[in-house]
Amino acid sequence: MAQHAILRFEKHKGNPARPLEAHHERQKEQYASNPDIDTSRSKYNFHIVKPEGRYYHFIQSRIEQAGCRTRKDSTRFVDTLITASPEFFKKKPPKEIQEFFQRAADFLIGRVGRENIVSAVVHMDEKTPHLHLVFVPLTEDNRLCAKEIIGNRANLTKWQDDFHAYMVEKYPDLERGESASKTGRKHIPTRLFKQAVNLSKQARAIEATLDGITPFNAGKKKEEALSLLKKWFPQMENFSGQLKKYNFEYMKMDYNDTIGIGCDGAESLGEGLRRDREASVNFVRKVKEEIPGIILENCASGGHKLEPLMMSECSMASFSDAHECEEIPVIAASLHRSILPRQSQIWAVIRKTDSVKRIGYTVASTFLGRMCFSGDVTELSAEQWKAIEDGMAFYKKAAPAIRDGYSYIESHKGSSDRHLTGWQAVIRVQSEEGKLYEGKHESAFVTAHIFHGEIPEKIVIDLPEGCPNTIAEVYAPTAITAKVEGRQLIITPSEEMEAISVLLK
Prior knowledge:
The protein is an alpha+beta fold. The protein has 14 helices and 19 strands.
């Protein structure tokens, strides 16, 4: 696995030095907001440059000594994070870790000046050892100018290049990561991820409190829940502001849990659930208002959130997550009645023990929505990979009909959705909204799944009005075949638990 040396800068305006100092210098007894800190290991932390006093006093003193005038938006100090991939530190003794960070600190000290270093401390009490080096951004001619020292994105790339070149002289296994100037990535501070973890913990505490309400403790639990909510909402507002700052474009909401029967005070259980749904949708609308253009994944079918109102506001949803059951194509087809196929994420979980037939059955299910893959995808044979690659090629050609179209479901399965027999076919015809029967349509496809039980000699599917009837491509890893006669698609199965998809032009 690749090992990288990591160098990051975070500029600080105004005077937020006190909370940073409390964190860096481990001045608190507990760190509830940061579950990664193991205070029993804090004794192993060490300084490369010890602070001469309080951060704020040192920073202010250096600025005054330099004779600099400051504005409200002046960057007063820079917090630098230096670390490496976790694999780099594995099995390294403390002395070698100290030598690594000493060399890294020497690089920075040479660039920004020893006299401007507020503190340089190595944390050994978190999951990955790392160095926090705080400095006042004073130039050689005593100007307070972080822009000149750190520079723009191009200069940051030069910093990274020089840092890697310096470190690799002693640590040749370290690789240079792909430049942000090429990837377009903007660094997201670690504190934001930790803040998200903390907010999630608070949300679970609120849920637990609400779940614990009974007729005997309603008053006490209500006050407890309100107290938790008063703390949670301002923090959530702050977090939302941070998301905007760093241009988040994608958010996944995962809530695969039961929400019970609704909220207290409603005139009926149904009304309680309706209010719960309304509050959830209003939250989503607020997020979209605050962050225009954000893509929202509603991975929350277990939380009763996979329903038309929520999906009218969300981009997509996973109904199956990573389940591997045979019923996936039946569930996926049924969802065409409630959400758009382009919103429905269908996971193909591929195992190295899967036969090509099984892979074909699974991959064909994804044609009924948005294709997703997981499983043993790095351990497959060439034959298995071919079945997947052929499926992906078919999917790309079928995509216009998946995105825009109408669905028809031919279901001839048994009475049980848990023990499938018979067969199912989904016809998806590409169409502009409201123009299904106006002339010919460019494409359509049919995906058929054969279940357990007696195999029919042939399956005859009547193609709907306006549907193309020329076979352009077939996806079928088994011996199952298909042909068109007039306005009918005729499928000839070969064995149970197989699938075929036919692209029509």
